[in-house]
């Protein structure tokens, strides 16, 4: 008898169950563990106190990203420059000493490969299709873009994975987001995911793992897929995933940690078997028409507060749910905005191109192609580009993109999380607005009192040129 058709998520899950308990809880094997400095110090400390070791140091990769400054890290004499903020310095120092103590792979703050953990994982071929990947970080969902089951965990789970290479979990429900048709010109993966979150809301994916399906994703680059899956968490989902295919295999082949030789051929054979079976069913299904997706920007303090760039700030009363009406009023108050204002009338003083959502080479190319031969508007006080990793940075420099950015009045920085969450010195001043390619527009996210508008790299570049939110498609038309 043929076995029951399964989804991609179910296949990866089943392949990793070590033990299933009667109540449905499973002990799941973890293939890859990424570690950064913010959520790991207590986990390592707990191991130390209980005299435990790391079960699979070879499957664990640590890299500092949240607290690192994006200005020079090394003095002209070659010495490491000090980190001023005491807490940042302590977290970075802890990772720096924990990694060798526990024998785990470590990319230090001045290594050429250093970068945001979610950029580094796929780039190093450490994150692989069909793998279970965890990190003490909510945006771990990004790695779903290469066909991995990847999700964020808390610090106590970080400790559990370090000690046992397993996790106790209950299986999530399955959700399909099917995008039908083709994206229009100037519409990017970031616009797609912002639009999707606008449709499903920040709780739309709660309890589910989303599989993104449709031709759009088959045609999308790995970078674009990582962007889409990255923001699954903003739609409330446990993880987001896209079936791996030749695009992914071409991207991964030859990367430092990717399998080699026969191992590679065997791996591909398995990866090819992972796609959702015909006839498999999802617990929830949402269909989005690609033709409805415009360049999209956020207006409020939740990633679901989005509107097409040609639109206006909604009236709080236009929401059916009274709690949503109240949230919209609060958001507009915090953002200093009035309902009915056209989005293109909103002036911005800061531009941030970076974060694990949009700091890969394609993102920088997209922004640079808009900025080429143009400069930022006089009202734009601060504009920075923070590449996702040292390798992205060098690639961009080899292509001359850094010159395009600096000629346009942007600062060209060292890799890290930076103004995505402002744990390092890169902050948007209180009351100022930032056109940002990151993933969260929460109150105070980019610094106390900061006001964030989420958008794509091309749209961030267009906003820099005009000094206000701008439909990049009009700009390209001259
Ligand atoms: C600091 C870290 C735990 C946090 C996360 O989990 O996502 C951060 O990366 C973020 O984006 O808010
Ligand atoms: S870039 Fe931003 S969203 Fe991504 S891991 Fe860093 S802080 Fe979190």
TrEMBL record:
SUPFAM superfamilies: Aconitase iron-sulfur domain. InterPro entries: 3-IsopropMal_deHydase_lsu, Acnase/IPM_dHydase_lsu_aba_1/3, Acoase/IPM_deHydtase_lsu_aba, Aconitase_4Fe-4S_BS, Aconitase_4Fe-4S_dom, IPM_dehydratase_rel_enz, IPMI_cat. It comes from Qipengyuania psychrotolerans. The keyword Transport does not apply. Residues 10-467 form the Aconitase/3-isopropylmalate dehydratase large subunit alpha/beta/alpha domain. The keyword Amino-acid biosynthesis applies. Pathway: Amino-acid biosynthesis; L-leucine biosynthesis; L-leucine from 3-methyl-2-oxobutanoate: step 2/4. It catalyses: (2R,3S)-3-isopropylmalate = (2S)-2-isopropylmalate. Pfam families: Aconitase. It is an enzyme of class 4 (lyase). This is 3-isopropylmalate dehydratase large subunit. Coiled coil: none annotated. GO terms for molecular function: 3-isopropylmalate dehydratase activity.
């Amino acid at each position: 008898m043929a076995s029951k058709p399964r989804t991609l998520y179910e296949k990866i899950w089943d392949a990793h169950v070590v033990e299933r308990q009667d109540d449905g809880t499973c002990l799941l094997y973890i293939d890859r563990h990424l570690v950064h400095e913010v959520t790991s110090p207590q986990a390592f400390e707990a191991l130390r106190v209980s005299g435990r070791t790391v079960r699979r140091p070879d499957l664990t990769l640590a890299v500092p990203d949240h607290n690192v400054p994006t200005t020079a890290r090394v003095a002209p004499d070659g010495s490491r420059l000090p980190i001023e903020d005491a807490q940042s310095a302590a977290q970075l120092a802890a990772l720096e000493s924990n990694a060798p103590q526990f024998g785990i792979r470590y990319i230090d703050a001045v290594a050429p490969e250093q970068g945001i953990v979610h950029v580094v994982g796929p780039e190093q071929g450490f994150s692989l299709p069909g793998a279970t990947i965890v990190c003490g970080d909510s945006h771990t969902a990004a790695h779903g873009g290469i066909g991995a089951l990847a999700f964020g965990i808390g610090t106590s789970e970080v400790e559990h994975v370090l000690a046992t290479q397993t996790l106790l979990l209950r299986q999530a429900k399955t959700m399909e987001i099917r995008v039908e048709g083709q994206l229009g010109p100037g519409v990017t993966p970031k616009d797609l995911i912002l639009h999707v979150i606008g449709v499903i809301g920040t709780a739309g994916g709660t309890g589910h793992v989303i599989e993104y399906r449709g031709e759009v994703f088959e045609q999308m680059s790995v970078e674009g897929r990582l962007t889409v899956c990255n923001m699954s968490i903003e739609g409330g989902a446990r993880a987001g995933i896209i079936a791996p295919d030749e695009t992914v295999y071409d991207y991964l082949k030859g990367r430092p940690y990717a399998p080699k030789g026969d191992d590679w051929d065997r791996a591909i054979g398995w990866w090819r078997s992972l796609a959702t079976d015909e006839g498999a069913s999802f617990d929830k299904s949402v269909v989005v028409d690609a033709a409805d997706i415009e360049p999209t920007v956020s207006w409020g303090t939740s990633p679901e507060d989005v509107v097409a760039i040609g639109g206006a700030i909604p009236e709080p009363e236009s929401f059916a749910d009274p709690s949503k009406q109240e949230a919209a009023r609060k958001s507009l108050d915090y953002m200093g905005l009035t309902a009915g204002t056209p989005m293109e009338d909103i002036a911005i003083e800061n531009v941030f191109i970076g974060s694990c959502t949009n700091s890969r080479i394609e993102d920088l190319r997209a922004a640079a192609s808009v900025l080429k031969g143009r400069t930022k508007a006089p009202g734009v006080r601060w504009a920075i580009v923070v590449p996702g990793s040292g390798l992205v940075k060098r690639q961009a420099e080899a292509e001359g993109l850094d010159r395009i950015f600096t000629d346009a009045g942007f600062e060209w920085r060292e890799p890290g999380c930076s103004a995505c969450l402002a744990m390092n010195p890169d902050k948007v001043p209180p009351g100022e607005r930032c056109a940002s390619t990151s993933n969260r527009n929460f109150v105070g996210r980019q610094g106390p009192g900061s006001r964030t508008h989420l958008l794509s790299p091309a749209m961030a570049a267009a906003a820099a040129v005009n000094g206000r939110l701008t439909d990049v498609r009009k700009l390209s038309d001259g």
